[in-house]
């Protein structure tokens, strides 16, 4: 019954996916062939074995038990036992699961208040506001800061939630090359020149939007240089720490901790609770005035129910553990273990001849595969031997830069890492993925 008009695209298909599908039909076909002939390459996680950080997967009918090197459980707090789980269970008996109200009405309990306070303390800023979803924290709050007549400078690899939020602002968006300070300065200079023939600034505000650790590249933002540009050109900085908070720096406080920068120098500190804290939701930290402004104006605060109490409790407990206020030095142990695991696996992969992107301290380790067809083969071989990794290709990466992405965790044991390396060594040779002739250590 669909109308047969030329150029008609069904509702459930966007132009891009229609185009991509046809272009990559061959790649998709090799996905489908050996494991799933009919149902497609979908993975259902049957059960999570938290104690040993593994997964039980059902890959279209095939039941597998795999090691998890694919999820962002950086500090291993996504456990079903231990202090975090116990505190969440207790909070259910105290406050239930859902609050059924926004924070401005009846959805702001003592637990939420504690979460805001602990988050501000953790970040080292004056105040913080928390939201039930990380994605919405970006997409719904950026429009509070920027409007038409403002200029938003966005790193080309910024996450989809930042891109969506930026578009919703109505501001002029200019994209600079990934982590490229020269290009950013060029764009800032242009912005200033644009104002010169006039008697007032061309742009009401200029906001530089960056991430702490980029999840496809494993690169760390060049924060010190960006802060210099911010001062020189009187711009503001919005920093998304989804992948760096908890995971980076000697105290796990993210990129500011890593570079030894006072967090108060960042105008808007954003992050999510879905990675290092093993929970859900997001936060914005900054000055008291900024946070009060958001409490009254953020769509995500005013029109959306506040966070589920057990989820909030999970975040509070994990933050307290990281800060050393609970469980002795367990937090520090996790931070150090993650840092060790990260450096170990990256160094060993490079010694084997793999090309690995990113910074040596990034818990995201992208291993370059280049060819889309090899991506499929590697993923399949790893799964068959009980190793769960994430493979990414176009459109998430440039066409010829397909990669496998390993996400390290403090929960990975040396045995798990060595098994992973053994499998990579074997499959890397079989699929000719060792492109680098000499071993190389990333900077
Ligand atoms: N920002 C970045 C940089 C992310 O990578 C993600 C998701 N991985 C988000 C925001 C959205 O966070 P969430 O998954 O918690 O909604």
List keywords for this structure.
443 residues, alpha/beta, Aspartate Aminotransferase, domain 1, Aspartate Aminotransferase, domain 2, 2 domains, seven-stranded mixed β-sheet, four-stranded mixed β-sheet, 15 helices, globular, binds 4'-deoxy-4'-aminopyridoxal-5'-phosphate, EC 2.3.1.50
Account of the protein in words:
The chain is α/β, with parallel strands linked by helices. It contains 15 helices and 14 strands. The chain has 2 domains: 147 residues, Aspartate Aminotransferase, domain 1 (Alpha-Beta Complex), CATH 3.90.1150.10; 240 residues, 3-Layer(aba) Sandwich (Aspartate Aminotransferase, domain 2). The strands form 3 sheets. The chain has a 7-stranded mixed sheet, sandwiched between helices. Strand 1 and strand 2 form a beta hairpin. The chain is globular. The C terminus is likely disordered. Bound molecules: 4'-deoxy-4'-aminopyridoxal-5'-phosphate (PMP).
Topology:
Layout: H1 15-23, H2 25-32, E1 43-49, E2 54-59, E3 62-68, H3 83-95, H4 110-123, E4 127-131, H5 134-145, E5 151-155, H6 160-169, E6 172-176, H7 181-195, E7 206-211, H8 223-232, E8 236-240, H9 255-259, E9 268-272, E10 282-286, H10 288-297, H11 299-302, H12 309-322, H13 330-352, E11 364-370, H14 372-384, E12 387-388, E13 390-392, E14 402-407, H15 414-430
Parallel strand pairs: 3-12, 5-6, 5-7, 7-8, 8-9
Antiparallel strand pairs: 1-2, 2-3, 4-10, 9-10, 11-14, 13-14
